[in-house]
Amino acid sequence: MATEAVTFDSLKSQLAKRQYAPVYLLHGEEGYYIDALVKIFEQILPIEERDFNMYTMYAPEVSVDTVMDTCRRYPMMSEYQVVILKEAQAINAAQLNRLHLYASQPSPTTILVICCRGAVAKAKDLIAEIKKNNGVVFLSEKIKERNAINNIGSYIKLKGLNAEPKALEMLRDYIGTDLSRLYNEIDKLALILGANAMITPESIERNIGVSKDYNNFELIDALAQKDSLRAYKIIEYFRQNSKNNPAVVTVMALFGYFSDLLTLYFTKDKSEANLKSMVGAKWDIQFAKFKHGMRNYNAYQVIEIVAAIRDFDAKSKGIGSRQNEYLLLKDLVFHILSAPGDINF
């Protein structure tokens, strides 16, 4: 077993082949992967062996000494015993680090799984001993915004479905990078639509609740084309349906778009292939908004717009303004559409 941290897929593959390490540390901000792996560890033992050889412990409720004592026991009528320590992120680093005493000499008949869900473990000695003694450290990182579309597309294909590019953008903008929620919604669509179905903006609107015409994808498209009437209609829809359209998510989407647009202006290689690569656009429909943006805004205007978005973020938190966030958002859209690009360097 490799001592370096592994990917989610490679770790699943190792477990499927029954290639077990003595100690696993599953830690990081993305809880989905940790939950999925724990379910696999819980299935290692046959049902008839679990009563005497499966231990699930919660770090805030049990001492580290008890965990180590349990791990040093011999399994009863089984090849292995499995000890899963959950919520290890809830105890301090010094306590967690004490498990290095066990990790330095782990029992060959125990599989210890330490779960720090939602946090990166700070236990340096523990991590070092796990790696030194053929254990596995898996860092569960949140997917980056730029990789979200590819991740969503891959999971949709895994479920036997296809999706239109705009539908992928809608899923990313509406749900974001919360994988548990994202995959849950895709699972729901797979159940409703059936095998080999195409996920469309209409099916997302019908089954998930996000409007196909009034969403962040459409707002960015309207601003890129300087279609002020459509942009203001979308903002008004957001104001009337604020629960499903939080302003903070809209502003994050705007900041991401205009930041990417600014990157394109200062990229030396202006070939379309390179520009697409820079913003993670796989399809022409994804790149179209950048083409429109570069046609309608110069670099100075984009710099001013990014500054205005930062100003909105401060004001929406009550710094220098007490206006309603949707009034601020309307002002921001006006600033974007009318930015003169007057920058003083």
Mean pLDDT: 90
Q: Which shape, going by the Cα principal axes?
A: elongated
| Rg from Cα | 25 Å
Which stretches of 5+ consecutive residues score pLDDT under 50?
none
Counting DSSP H or I runs of 4 or more residues, the number of helices is 18
The tally of strands reads: 7
Order the strands across the largest sheet as they lie in space: 2-3-4-1-5
Our measurement of the CA-to-CA distance between the termini, rounded to an integer number of angstroms, reads: 56 Å
Structural class: alpha/beta
β-sheet strand percentage = 5-15%
The H/E string reads HEHHEHEHHEHEHEHHEHHHHHHHH
Summarize the structure.
This protein is an alpha/beta fold. The chain is built from 18 helices and 7 strands.
Structure description:
It is a single chain. With 345 residues, this protein is α/β, with parallel strands linked by helices. The protein has 18 helices and 7 strands. The chain has helices spanning 8-16, 31-41, 47-53, 64-71, 93-97, 100-103, 124-132, 148-158, 165-175, 179-193, 201-207, 216-224, 228-240, 247-265, 272-279, 284-296, 299-316, 325-338, and strands spanning 23-28, 54-58, 81-86, 110-117, 136-139, 162-163, 198-199. The strands form 2 sheets. Strands 2-3-4-1-5 form a 5-stranded parallel sheet, with helices on both faces. A two-stranded parallel sheet has the order 6-7. Helix 8 (148-158) crosses helix 9, helix 12 runs antiparallel to helix 13 (228-240) and helix 17 packs antiparallel against helix 18. The longest helix has 19 residues, at 247-265. It is elongated. The model has no long low-confidence stretch (mean pLDDT 90).
